[in-house]
Design brief:
Elements (H helix, E strand, L loop, with lengths): L3 E6 L7 H9 L6 E6 L8 E4 L7 H6 L1 H4 L6 E6 L3 E2 L8 H4 L6 E3 L4 E2 L8 H8 L16 H10 L9 H4 L10 H18 L11 E2 L4 E5 H16 L4 H12 L2 E3 L14 H4 L9 H6 L7 E2 L12
Parallel strand pairs: 1-2, 1-4, 2-3, 6-10
Antiparallel strand pairs: 4-9, 5-11, 7-8
């Protein structure tokens, strides 16, 4: 039996993608599950989940008892709009991802203080409250000092945030010149007053692109527990998942340690890599960029998916 299970995470109820993704992966992975919000169908390997896509770590927790098996060594999670390099399969995934039995994978581990100026999810992380009313979650996480030590074990630092990371640089379109000057002056004064102020997180948190990650069998139970805690308290997924990995993993590998690198396509220039495929999935799979671990996003509804 295969030692890995592929678990495909859907942000939305795209049932039509089930068969397409089965076609893509069925010859490469013997064990496949789909986590789909509000699924009402009959397929045995499709697990209905009930959570916001902004907190899809909750999907992982809710589906756990269905996809868990003692014989699995790794749990390989991918988004439904992410296409893994076709060379990766259940027999060689550990070589490509440099995974030993106790190793987990996440694309990156970026401290929130390293995120540069304003990112709305840094603000939400700063305001995140484990003591959310109606959720008794505080004692379900390691205490601050223990969490800090776990971060330190991986060489990760938790540093304070700056004012400009939490308060967006102000612009004043449409205001009359005098009003614009007054508003700008007021904002600049506030900035100067807070220039050297340090803003400390209430709990150690890390960030990462999270549309692909792998969890070792040794870590999976603790990992899904922390994912559930973070989902119930509303922590954004790209902070929740990497933080849960740091808190639960014995060893972590990230993309910079690999020969294959990620292919996240966010700008028009980055998307040009897809031009030669003419939105034909078969062409992409037959001529996948050989140095890329994955391509994301690939919105299958916009592609010719005949294989």
């Amino acid at each position: 039996m295969s030692e890995v299970v592929l678990i495909i995470i859907y942000n939305h109820k795209y049932d039509k993608n089930i068969e397409i993704l089965e076609q893509i992966y069925k010859d490469r992975f013997s064990n496949i599950y789909h986590l789909i919000p509000f699924y009402t169908g009959e397929k045995k390997n499709v697990i209905p989940v009930y959570e916001s896509s902004y907190n899809f770590q909750g999907y992982v927790s809710q589906g756990f008892k269905t996809y868990f098996k003692e014989e699995y060594k790794h749990y390989f999670f991918v988004a439904d709009d992410l296409i893994l390099n076709p060379i990766i399969n259940e027999t060689n995934y550990s070589q490509h991802l440099h995974l030993k039995s106790k190793t987990s994978f996440v694309p990156e581990t970026i401290g929130l203080h390293e995120r540069g100026e304003f990112w709305t999810h840094v603000v939400k992380a700063f305001n995140w409250n484990v003591n959310l009313p109606g959720v008794e979650a505080k004692n379900e996480l390691p205490d601050y000092a223990t969490a800090l030590q776990l971060f330190s074990n991986f060489g990760l630092e938790i540093k304070p945030l700056t004012y400009l990371q939490l308060y967006k640089k102000q612009e004043f379109p449409g205001l009359a010149k005098i009003k614009k000057f007054q508003s700008y002056y007021s904002w600049k004064k506030t900035l100067i007053e807070n220039k050297n102020k340090e803003f400390h997180l209430s709990y150690p948190l890390i960030s990462s692109y999270s549309d692909v990650f792998v969890i070792s069998a040794d870590s999976i139970k603790q990992f899904i527990h922390y994912c559930g805690v973070f989902a119930s308290t509303g922590l954004f997924v790209e902070i929740a998942i990497p933080t849960a990995i740091v808190l639960s993993a014995d060893e972590i590998v990230i993309e910079k340690d690999l020969e294959l690198k990620g292919g996240a396509l966010w700008t028009p220039e980055q998307c040009e890599i897809l031009d030669k495929y003419d939105r034909k999935l078969e062409l992409l799979l037959n001529d996948f960029p050989e140095k890329l671990l994955y391509l994301h996003p690939i919105k299958l509804s916009k592609w010719n998916t005949a294989l």
